[in-house]
Amino acid sequence: MAPRNIPPLTTQEFSLFRQFVEAESGISLGDDKQYLLESRLKGLMADMHCTGYGELYRLIKEDKRGHVRQKLIDAITTNETLWFRDKAPFIILEEFFLPAMVERIRNGKFRVRIWSAACSTGQEPYSLAIVIHNFLQRLGDAKITPQQFEIIATDISKEALGVAKMGAYDKFSMERGMDRSNIDRYFKQKQRFWIINPILKKMIDFRQFNLLGKFSELGTFDMVLCRNVAIYFSHETKIKLYDKIRQVLKPQGLFVLGSTESMTFYTQAFKSKEFKSNIYYEAVDS
Ligand SMILES: C[S@@+](CC[C@H](N)C(=O)[O-])C[C@H]1O[C@@H](n2cnc3c(N)ncnc32)[C@H](O)[C@@H]1O
Q: Whole-structure pTM over 0.85, yes or no?
């Protein structure tokens, strides 16, 4: 239960939280987001038994172990996602990227690495794994196995990652983009939840990772999906993010954005390409 009679978030408190959230996560809350922030903080206020937003802010600032800070991040992030979102990346994956990668594996490439860079509750990386698994089954080449495809799925939100790692989805989530044949192939229903097949789980390495951090620990990638997260970042943060992504893309690596996103104003380091009217990006000098 939320404590009653909490005074509304003041403009000064809004400004403090806003600076803190941007410094921690890159999420830039516009002037009009005071009400949104207040409503997102209500649950945390109740959890922490705070009677005012100033008190919650102090707890977060003094939080040595980072638990309250993590809860703030979990409350602030928007984890909206669905299966096979926008379709385009999965058409590119299946019809363009995977045939090219199979050829390269046959010519000696060891492993294909794909990064789902803000994976939320897991629908994006599991959708990738499903497309890869179906493709390899159809291919029927015993020398090319799912183990040669490594998906790294990261997010800043511990709560969202918890759901992703669990791989159990309710009816509402399943109805958002998952089709019957893949349900039959890759899920087992247990009471109210559909549990993902461990075969797909094994293909994904879920890790907590902040896009503001250094990317070097992740290695390099043949394909990066960074979709519907930079929309929350400032102009400067987007420039830095795209520059870092460029550095972890392998030569001829593919970069995929969300359907409403574009890089035009932030960097000239990528060129946009089309496959059957679906857009992806490659680094300019690759
Ligand atoms: C709207 S979801 C997008 C999920 C998925 N990529 C898609 O397109 O369906 C945005 C995700 O970005 C994550 N996020 C926000 N800021 C982040 C940061 N600094 N580092 C890593 N992930 C972040 C959020 O936790 C959230 O799960």
A: yes
